[in-house]
Design brief:
single chain; 6-stranded mixed β-sheet
């Protein structure tokens, strides 16, 4: 199952409709949760009635903006539990009879109203009995690495969001792709990017669908990126064990690593005894590191190729001070990415003699030749 979540900021614009059609065609989602649709049921049917989603829940107040839509394909069994202008909660029954809960969530965008979001999230937990995943635009960030701006994030708002998730026992599922899902699209120093859209799940849901992943897509039609949750579990993965936490050596190269660990360790809470407190802190720290590091682990092959092409162009152009400065910056960035790639693959090589500095050395070739000769004997 694939769940698409997107704050599309109005489906009345033809470019937004075309963008959504393209996402549906390429990604083939099973379920779509759309926010700020600005369409009632009649308008939705008129604009997007030909999409392959016969089942619809449309939430829209008359004569107002906003609006939510949860649409899904035939064959998917969903039961509506409740809804407001900021959420839609359904119970999902899989083909094998397994039951879990899905919430499409849209948090209040105003900082002064953010408490209402966390009160709603806490209220929804009373309707959930079992595995639960929540996806949408929370209009909040968990740590400072999720914001890129000249204005620093407010620590109080981040703490409130973390405490809200801790209270309902939901954990961030991480992501793959570009790290920021919202861009205010202002030029220069006024530009702000944040990761406002995410998916969170409780331990029961993560244990059942332990191979699930969240991917950030791209779109030109909204200042929010679409998010896809690929739910992987059930019969296809029965008998397999979820991979345990493994610390990535490449994470040590990122400047914000210590802040992430300190934040995660500080929010673990206090348990009845010291051993249980330490266990909880380690578990929380591991989950936060996985969520933070999911976008920093895999080699950035496309970015490496782009940097190499740009450096090639600069090397062939007229060399002036501006060109020299840009070349220096790009070269350092490329070297940093290649170093992270090297550590990534070295950690996975499982060959003890392959160290981070032994790339194209005489020692390497001698060992490789010995290995080939042994294979032929």
């Amino acid at each position: 199952m694939k769940i698409l979540s997107w704050n599309c900021q109005g489906l009345g614009n033809p470019w937004t409709v075309r963008s959504l059609r393209d996402i549906v065609r390429v990604q083939a989602p099973t379920v779509c949760f759309l926010m700020e649709t600005r369409l009632d049921k009649e308008g939705f049917d008129r604009q997007l009635g030909d999409l392959p989603f016969p089942n619809k829940i449309i939430v829209k107040q008359p004569n107002s903006g906003g609006g939510l839509a949860l649409i899904w394909r035939a064959g998917v069994k969903m039961e509506l539990i409740n809804f407001t202008m900021n959420h839609i909660l359904v119970k999902v029954t899989a083909e094998d009879g397994f039951v879990w809960f899905l919430t499409g969530f849209y948090g209040w965008p105003e900082a002064c109203q953010r408490g209402k979001s966390w009160a709603l999230l806490n209220h929804l937990k009373s309707f959930v009995d079992g595995p639960w995943v929540c996806i949408g635009d929370f209009n909040a960030i968990l740590n400072s690495s999720e914001k890129l701006s000249n204005t620093p994030p407010q620590q109080r708002l981040m703490d409130d969001f973390r405490q809200a998730l801790d209270m309902v026992q939901l954990f961030d599922l991480g992501f793959e792709g570009y790290p920021f899902t919202w861009n205010n699209r202002r030029p220069g120093y006024a530009n702000t990017k944040q990761r406002l859209d995410r998916a969170v799940g409780n331990e029961a849901w993560r244990a059942k669908f332990c191979f699930s992943k969240v991917t950030h897509l791209s779109s030109y039609a909204s200042d929010h990126l679409p998010t896809v949750l690929h739910v992987k579990g059930g019969k296809k993965w029965q008998g397999r064990v979820c991979r345990g936490f493994k610390f990535e050596e490449a994470w040590l190269l990122w400047d914000d690593r210590e802040a992430v660990v300190e934040e995660a360790w500080g929010k673990g809470g206090v348990r009845p005894n010291a051993l249980e407190t330490t266990r909880q802190k380690i578990e929380t720290c591991g989950a936060d590191l996985l969520a933070w590091g999911s976008s920093k682990t895999h080699p950035a092959n496309e970015e490496v190729k782009q940097l190499q092409k740009r450096i090639e162009v600069l090397n062939c152009s007229d060399y002036n001070e501006e060109c020299k400065a840009e070349l220096l910056v790009l070269s350092r960035k490329l070297d940093d990415l290649l170093r992270k790639q090297e550590i990534f693959w070295a950690q996975r090589s499982r060959i003890s003699w392959l160290k981070h500095g032994d790339r194209n050395t005489r020692f390497f070739h001698q060992k490789a030749s010995q290995r080939r000769r042994r294979n032929y004997i």
